[in-house]
Amino acid sequence: MPVQDFSPPLQDFGTLRLQVTTAQGAFPVPNAVIEVLSPLPHSALLYRGHTDASGIADDLPLPANPRADSQRPETAPASPRRYTVIISHSSFLPQTHPVSLFAGVKTILPVVLVPVLPTERRLQ
């Protein structure tokens, strides 16, 4: 009797790399908190991590729509899988960015954070 394969169909993945810096890209921001939320309407947290000493969070695998969708005119507009990325750090203003991922492609998101001014430094 043949054995039936119960494995789920293979999911396509894209990868995400964040490069978090400050001062117009001159200095990396280590230990920035990275959160990736699933596409709307659910917005579930898929990933939470930190940037390394170089301000980089790399090789985050995320589900992507099938590669074939991007190669047909009728499905190409809907082919990217869209995510929301939130970047935060106690010394900087938080940022939220939409990101589109494609199967088999590494998407690089450069982020330049703006420092928070200390409360005692007020303009007069």
By CATH's scheme, which homologous superfamily applies? Carboxypeptidase-like, regulatory domain
C-alpha Rg (nearest Å) = 19 Å
The percent range for helix content is under 10%
Name the structural class: mainly beta
For the largest beta-sheet, the strand count, sense and barrel status come to: 4 strands, mixed
DSSP summary, beta strand count = 8
Number of continuous helical runs: 0
Q: What is the CATH top level name?
A: Mainly Beta
Strand content: over 45%
The whole-number mean of residue pLDDT values reads 86
Considering the chains and any ligands shown, give keywords for the structure.
single chain; 124 residues; mainly beta; Immunoglobulin-like; four-stranded mixed beta sheet; four-stranded antiparallel beta sheet; 0% helix; disordered C terminus
Task: Give structural notes.
The chain has no helices and eight strands. The protein is mostly beta strands and 124 residues long. The protein has one domain: Immunoglobulin-like (Sandwich), CATH 2.60.40. The protein is elongated. Residues 120-124 have low confidence and may be disordered.
